Amino acid sequence: MNTVEPIRDINTVWDIADYLREKSERNKIMFLFGIYVGIRVSDILSLKVRDVRDMNYVSIREMKTGKEKRFPINEELRPLLNRYIKGKADYEPLFPSRQQNRPSWTKSLALMPETSTSIRTMTTAYLFMKGKPTMRR
What we know:
two-stranded antiparallel ribbon
């Protein structure tokens, strides 16, 4: 069985974010949202703009477990989100998907055999344990 490791180098996180931004701002923000907030892709895709507009936290019912959870929105993520949602209606999906399956940034990660979509949550946990609440370059 393959093991998955968190991304331990902040520069690698930003390299991935920069690569994704070349494809679409949505993919970059979705990736960083996953890293900063640490929730599953299925839960990220269920969010609406109203769930983050003027909020300091995200409240969700996890699709996998059915549990109610509340996650803080990082101070570095807030300005990125504000810029991303500007002009969007509250009822719109936060990250609209053109496909029903995996979003394209997860496909990008799948191209790297040593990674998986679990890497976001593992990276979030790793950074938290190391006392790195921000990802400043």
